[in-house]
């Protein structure tokens, strides 16, 4: 039998060349200069990573529109009032961010805020307890409420929606019981709770606002440079120095004019300092600690987190404890702002505004994605709209409709962004 021979000029069959795998945009090394920054921004937008851009653009549009209509929206006294008014609902919104990162909800935070304010005011004004101890007791009570919610959710398996709905009803009843038949407890004049909303650092000394405006960009620059250095040392991609400089400059452009405006009125308000401090602290916890990574892991996938050795039940319980404690702190600022604790505190649209602030700021309703800074940005949007509409004497019904439309737009944007990331294989 003869073996068939291959002709000399025959060409062997060519194997199909596989297509190059798609490269995750996060692994691209940013080119230098403005062109590199714009290219990175384009890739992020195409992949559904909008970040805080829509919120910042919205805030600019709100300021421009109301300034053109009223002529004094950007005056110093109005900006000071906005900075004061955002503290109470903003602190509650920070707690909402923690819960949303798990992909859950907490309907009890408004009632927790009202009950905590009632406990502190009754202890201080009626029982004669030292106000610092009264505030500590109120925060501890709120932490216990959150632990109870988390226990039934994480250990017993009751859905969070039902647990917190029951908590909302129960704590509202407790709030009425604590306040008694009078229903209102006025704050001690010049006491701790009364001065939470009215205090200004240094009694209006301009140095504090300027110090914060200079220190914030400087600390941001140092943190970003340190992070970039550590990532490069580990062989990972890092943010370009030009990008860091541009972001720092943008922060300074926002902070310095704000400091100037506040100093034209009464200086740096204490409520703004407390809110910023809580946002910075919680942001550090979420992004720089093992506990924060566990929160994101549980929100991204419960079963995967459990298989990775994370104590899912403890993470869930602790998140509800944190959110309730922050709600209590927010309730104290609301009580300070209105001069008393009453049966309406924490009711109305307080909870809805807090949830809306977290979502409008960019925290996903689907869990696993968000920052505590989103609560600050979101509550700025809501309070700016509310203040502007008050200045043009718009009816409260109009305010609700506009806020609802903004919330719907944020949720739609979140859903579209989520689908875009999924299509780009970035789930």
Would you mind describing this structure in some detail?
- The structure is a single chain.
- The chain is built from 17 helices and 2 strands.
- By secondary structure, it is mostly helical.
- It has a two-stranded antiparallel ribbon with strand order 1-2.
- It is globular, with a radius of gyration of 26 Å.
- About 2% of the residues have low confidence.
Q: What form results from the Cα inertia axes?
A: globular
Mean pLDDT: 84
CA-CA gap between termini: 60 Å
Order of helices and strands: HHHHHHHEHHHHHHHEHHH
User: Could you tell me the strand content as a percent range?
Assistant: under 5%
Tally of domains:
2
**Given the helix and strand composition, which structural class is it?**
mainly alpha
Uncertain runs with pLDDT below 50, 5 residues or more? 20-29
Number of beta-strand segments = 2
**Largest sheet, described in full?**
2 strands, antiparallel
> What oligomeric state best describes the polypeptide chains here?
single chain
Helices, by number, come to: 17
Helix proportion of residues, in percent? Answer: over 70%
Widest sheet: strand ordering:
1-2
Q: Could you tell me the radius of gyration in angstroms? A: 26 Å
Name some characteristics of this structure:
single chain, 427 residues, mainly alpha, 2 domains, 17 helices, 70% helix, globular
Question: What is the element layout, followed by pairings?
Answer:
Elements: H1 33-46, H2 53-70, H3 76-85, H4 87-101, H5 109-126, H6 131-156, H7 160-179, E1 184-186, H8 192-198, H9 206-233, H10 241-263, H11 270-288, H12 290-300, H13 302-307, H14 312-338, E2 340-342, H15 350-360, H16 373-391, H17 396-423
Antiparallel strand pairs: 1-2
Helix pairs in contact: 2-16, 3-10, 3-16, 4-11, 4-14, 4-15, 4-16, 5-6, 5-7, 5-14, 6-7, 6-14, 8-14, 9-10, 11-12, 12-14, 15-16, 15-17, 16-17
């Amino acid at each position: 039998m003869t073996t068939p021979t291959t002709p000399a000029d025959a060409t062997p069959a060519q194997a199909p060349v596989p297509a190059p795998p798609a490269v995750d945009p996060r692994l691209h090394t940013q080119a230098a200069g403005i062109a590199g920054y714009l290219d990175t921004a384009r890739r992020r937008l195409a992949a559904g990573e909008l970040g805080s851009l829509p919120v910042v653009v919205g805030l600019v549009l709100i300021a421009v529109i109301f300034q053109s209509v009223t002529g004094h929206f950007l005056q110093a006294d109005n900006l000071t009032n906005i900075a004061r008014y955002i503290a109470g609902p903003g602190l509650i919104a920070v707690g909402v961010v923690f819960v949303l990162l798990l992909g859950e909800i907490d309907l009890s935070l408004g009632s927790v805020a009202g009950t905590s304010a009632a406990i502190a005011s009754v202890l201080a004004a009626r029982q004669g307890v030292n106000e610092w101890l009264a505030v500590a007791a109120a925060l501890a009570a709120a932490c216990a409420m959150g632990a109870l919610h988390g226990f039934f959710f994480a250990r017993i398996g009751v859905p969070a929606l039902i647990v917190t709905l029951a908590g909302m009803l129960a704590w509202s009843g407790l709030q009425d019981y604590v306040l008694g038949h009078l229903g209102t407890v006025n704050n001690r004049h010049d006491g701790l709770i009364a001065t939470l909303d009215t205090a200004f650092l240094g009694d209006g000394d301009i140095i504090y606002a300027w110090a914060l405006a200079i220190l914030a960009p400087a600390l941001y620059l140092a943190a970003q440079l340190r992070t970039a250095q550590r990532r490069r040392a580990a062989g990972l991609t890092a943010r370009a120095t030009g990008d860091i400089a541009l972001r720092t400059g943008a922060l300074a452009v926002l902070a310095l004019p704000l400091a100037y405006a506040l100093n034209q009125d009464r200086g740096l308000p204490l409520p703004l300092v407390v809110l910023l401090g809580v946002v910075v602290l919680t942001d550090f916890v979420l992004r720089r600690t093992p506990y924060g990574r566990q929160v994101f892991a549980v929100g991204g996938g419960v079963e995967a987190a459990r298989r990775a050795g994370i104590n899912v039940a403890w993470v869930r319980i602790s998140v509800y404890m944190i959110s309730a404690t922050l709600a209590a702190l927010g309730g104290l600022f609301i009580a300070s702002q209105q001069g008393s604790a009453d049966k309406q505190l924490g009711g109305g649209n307080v909870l809805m505004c807090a949830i809306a602030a977290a979502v409008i700021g960019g925290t996903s309703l689907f869990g696993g994605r968000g920052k505590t800074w989103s609560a600050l940005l979101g509550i700025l949007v809501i309070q700016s709209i509310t203040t502007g509409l008050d200045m043009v004497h718009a009816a409260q019904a109009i305010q609700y409709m506009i806020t609802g439309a903004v919330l719907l737009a944020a949720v739609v944007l979140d859903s579209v962004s989520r689908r875009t990331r999924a299509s780009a294989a970035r789930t």
